[in-house]
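Below is a concrete protein record.
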Amino acid sequence: MTCIRIAAAGDLHADQRIRSRFDEAFGQVADAADVVLLAGDLTAHGEPDEVEVVASAAAELDVPVYAVLGNHDYHANRVDEITARLEAAGVVVLERSWARATIADTTLGIAGTKGFVGGFPGSTLPDFGEPLLRQVYAETGKDVAALDRALAEIADCPLRVVLLHYSPTMSTLVGEPESIWTYLGTNRLDGPIQKHRPDLVLHGHAHEGTFAGSVGPVPVYNVAVHVTRRDFFVFELDTDAPDGHGARLEATV
């Protein structure tokens, strides 16, 4: 049996005013986890100097760090600069892609993408009508297809995690006004999850949502810091879990 500890957080909304808090939080998580996963909205307004706060803190860690970006990180249309600064600090940025992390004597596969909007049964954006709305539908479709490809690529990994910003399920949106659920995620993202059945799905974005949910038998957690009420939440994944989904709540930091 191999257990690995995953420290997860989303919606950090970093800027220079709270640099010391991030230095402290990342310093503490170094002893509590084997890998760090960041579920988007690393910055307040998508400015490169804001992401430098996260990048400099992550650069001090001896454990691998993986991230997806969120809508805040896209706000200033400087995604290439933000990604470059994170990667220079050793953070692996996943966008419609995947990665493998060798930890102890096992391999963790991570399928990562920002995801996008689209809604859930009862209120969905259709692939019909005005071209701008159909472009939104198509953009979400690219994320769905990429997630399917990524999960297929890591199918042989003993442990597999999906890292998103937008939610793939209504179950973690409870607490947010239902009138905005269409803009918090889409159940179109749950198709690849149900098909490939990873061990764990993490997302952020829904600040007033619910911590724990699921897509079928797959556990889903909303790790926005507004929901967890802490800098990181640490999960433990077990390669010998009897139900094939070895996510356990292990500790908080």
